[in-house]
Design a protein that fits this description.
Layout: E1 2-6, H1 13-25, E2 30-33, H2 44-53, H3 62-69, H4 81-94, H5 97-104, E3 109-114, E4 117-122, H6 139-146, E5 154-157, E6 164-168, E7 171-175, E8 189-197, E9 200-208, H7 212-221, H8 227-236
Parallel strand pairs: 1-2, 4-5, 5-7
Antiparallel strand pairs: 1-8, 3-4, 6-7, 8-9
């Protein structure tokens, strides 16, 4: 069984299309989606439509929660909150009520059993959509923040846009990176594959090139309210 985990599309439908094509070529059996579907990209409507067309299990991310109810003080740095509120208003204006209702109704975690291998998947941590746990954290921090809520064999999360794979106490911990806005300096879409075959487990992080300048053009054409910063992130793969 080959399973793809994708997340953090952030309204980048061109990157999402490239990833879905790569998944098709690799003959993946299942796809699961770990949130952050629309917000901060130039094409939220199509991104959401592509995800819904997969007819698979999808969970909520912090950006999906922001689309539903707005960005609250304390959730982002004070110096960017007003700009992020404007971006959120723009995103909501591209969607309809059925889209908002869909995002609001998403669950917060997945518990999967694949051929006897248990997988616990969530967006940021098992009990938060917002907490940031970075790859440089020590093993004890990672275990206490990310691996406390179940006795799964594999723990998978998203949110930080920096993919990695770690092995601790006989368990596997993965961050699957971001399809639409990688922050690790590699401007290619990221997603993860977990392959399980009669107890054998293979995990990988895939990096997929896509038409970055077409995305830049989209930001400009739709007059996205924070286009300069977002295009810089897309081009560089860095949050700055």
């Amino acid at each position: 069984m080959k399973i793809a985990f994708i997340s953090d599309i952030h309204g980048n439908s061109i990157a999402l299309e490239a990833v879905l094509e790569d998944i098709r070529k690799k003959q993946i059996d299942r796809i699961y989606v770990l949130g952050d579907l629309c917000y901060r990209g130039p094409d939220p409507k199509r991104s959401l439509a592509l995800i819904r067309s997969l007819h698979t299990k999808v969970i909520k991310g912090n950006a999906d929660e922001w689309v539903v109810r707005g960005v609250n003080h304390g959730e982002v740095p004070d110096q960017v909150i007003e700009k992020m509120k404007i971006e959120r208003e723009w995103t909501v204006a591209q969607l309809d009520q059925a889209d908002i209702d869909y995002l609001e109704g998403l669950p917060s975690e997945l518990m999967l059993d694949i051929e006897g291998t248990s997988i616990h998947a969530f967006h940021a941590t098992p009990d938060s959509l917002f907490e940031v746990v970075l790859p440089g954290a020590g093993d004890e921090v990672l275990k206490s923040k990310l691996m406390f809520a179940s006795d799964a064999d594999i723990f998978i999360y998203a949110h930080i846009h920096k993919p990695f794979i770690r092995y601790m106490d006989g368990k596997i911990l993965m961050n699957i990176g971001s399809v639409g806005l990688p922050f690790d300096g590699m401007p290619k879409a990221a997603y993860a594959i977990v392959e399980i075959d009669h107890g054998q487990i293979h995990t990988s992080i895939e990096r997929v090139p896509y038409r970055i300048e077409d995305v830049v053009q989209q930001y400009e054409e739709v007059q996205y309210p924070n286009a300069e910063m977002m295009t810089r992130i897309v081009r560089n793969g860095l949050l700055k």
